[in-house]
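Complex record, three chains
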Amino acid sequence: MQDRDFNRALQADDDTRLTQSRLLVLALATALVAGLAAAAITFPDDFGRLAPLALDSLPRSGVLNPVTAVLLNYRGYDTLLEVVVLLLAIVGVWAIAPTPRIWFKTPDTPVLATFVRLLLPLMMVVAGYMLWLGADEPGGAFQGGAVLGGVGVLWAAAVVWLPRAGRPFWLRLLLGAGVAAFVIAAVGLLFLRGNLLQYPPEQAKTVILVIESAAMFSIGATLAMLFIGGYPRREEAK
Amino acid sequence: MIGTSTLYTLAGVLLFGMGLYALIAYPHLLRKILAMNVMGTGVFMVLISIAYQGPTQRADPIPHALVITGIVVAVCATGLALTLATRIQALTGSARLETDEEA
Amino acid sequence: MIFETAFWLPIGIMAPLLAALCTFLAPQRMSPLVTMIGAGITFVAVGFLSASLVRNGPARHTVGGWGAPLGIDLAVDGLAALMLMLTAVVGAAVALYAYGYFNFSGHGEETKRRYASFWPLWLFLWSALNALFLSRDVFNLYVTLELVSFAAVALTALAGKPDVLRAAMRYLLVSLVGSLFYLMGVAYLYGEFGVLDIDQLKKTVTATPSLAAAAALMTVGLMMKTALFPLHFWLPPAHANAIAPVSALLSALVVKGSFYILLRAWLEIFYPLSHTGAPYLLTGLGGAAILWGSLQAIRQVRLKLLIAYSTVAQIGYLFLLTPLLFVKEQSPIALSGIVCFILAHAGAKAAAFLSAGAIQLVTGDDRISSLRGLMQMQPLAVVAFGAAGVSLAALPPSGGFIAKWFMLHAALAHGDRLVAAIIVVGGLLAAIYVMRVVAPLFRQPDDAVLHRLTLAPKTMTLTALGLAVLALLLSFAGIPVMEMLSIGAVGILGIE
């Protein structure tokens, strides 16, 4: 219902005529693009920036995939804050929307639900594999989390099972697990080794994998909950 | 002589400008949110093209990691913005920012 | 280890973050208690950090032990410490006020449930602001900027009415576009100079087209977030329609966060461009903001809109002295003026919004015409607003006065008569809009109104009064602030 309203409003809004004010905006945007383009062609292309340093430090990072090394080790603090961004988005969405954005109803045929039941364990394995792979090859918590997010959306659409209460503890725990693991590791290592997130080199891979696993579940749950919007409440679904 | 990576940089800059135009010019919130995502993609493309170091060398992993972080932030921003937009639509029946007296 | 400054740097970020996580996981009724514990630890960390800074000088913390340029560094100097302390003091006062505000019997159950999100959101905001003040990495600053915006937008939307949701949406869009401009600037900096750490950038920057592009992108993006005229359009509806404790946080702290990055960026990264017209352009916009914002404030019918337009005007002062920051003789005084202004404005503006909120709770609306005779009914709130007004209008003795005294001193020493004139005129205009509010408060109230009124809780009026008194006491802070700023001054004024 809501979706149809949204689409109708969008069509009514298809007016793309160039009014005077739009022409002004277009001129400004064009000037910006021209200026930025003029500067962009002067980028030096004969030096590696931080790449040599990042690649040379790989043996001390605990992983072989350079992007994972940057994300979870060199710049792990960025990723910590990024996992916080995910949690904050959920807190924000729940503060803004008291009801789910999408109204689920049980599908008429059992096909979707059965399909999801079969698919679910398989996708969990795929996500776990992507996480494990991330240490040495392209992959990692975000890719795995995206797969889990897709599973969550399908799950909700098939209404295999939705929580009855507004904010069940297990859901909050799932959403907060990434931040919890990251912050506990960060502060623990601060006390043990004097710097936030300073891994012991021998155990770096283990610590990274533990943090990434928790983060992957939180990312998956967050993506699904961002899609659903608001609290998932089954009894309100029509 | 403009190399391949510069071409991608320029395309990214162009996407940034196009997104900015659409974001300001069109009043519907869904369009604004999409435009914001186009802008973001432009920035990510510039970062990716900076990372490219030619066919023989490994790409710079730093911008790649920045882009992953940026994408996650953009997804969260989109989720938050869509929630606000649907809430506004539900309460006021219109998915635009300006009220009737302003329009 | 725990006696080193560097150890306490990340605690100020992690403590409120951990508390935010706990308020999310624990049952909602425990949120105020968890917030109190988290706030206490953060207070101790900020206190230790500042004391240790004064004794041992500036300190760095290398997250992950890698160190710049590969890793991310946190650093504290006098400027950062002052911002941390400001956030802690204003934030704690606002949280105390919020506790009284939410427990006020006038709210319905549904409203109270929505307000429960205030606690995690405020703790996230606090953590993000502290992370912003301490970070030395331009990309990490982008992530903290986004954290600040998300928390601020969600807090704005807490009021739940259509007007405020539209305002929050506009705020979110402007904020995101601002962040993307900033991020594009980061891409240009990395593309040209190959590093993200501010100290590394400081050593390598030269006046190239890419640096100019990055400066333009970041300045415009952060101007949007700071609401500098003419990009201020989103601020009045958002700040005026949010609930009072949120308005106070937004006006006192959130806009200062993006300004802080802008200030540091110009002092430490874009300084090779200080001879272009850009700093003068910022001065011009600042002057326009003061005049336009003040005139709009004088015209307003609603109290909170008046205070919000006053914020638009006062943000102008932060930009007025930009060129002087690059003049060796005037730089320390100009910077002291700007920082004193940030502190005084934060205290006074938070007090103004908080007392307006207390008044609004008892009168039921926030039209200035309904303020008649409130001195008899709500003396504490009225005195708090009056004291805040003294600082906003920069009358002695107040923090606003000492800030403007520094500014005038720097401007006149450099021969900028026009800037000095704008500072004086802005003060007069502020006195006019403050008087518009204060005058009716002392009139004889209508009898009908007298019977209708209930009293706002003491926690609310007293915290507003406390902040207002603090803004007045800042008149003694001129020299201490200057001394604080000299700690690690090379970090701020790295222009040789």
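Note: The two ends of chain C are 34 Å apart (CA to CA).
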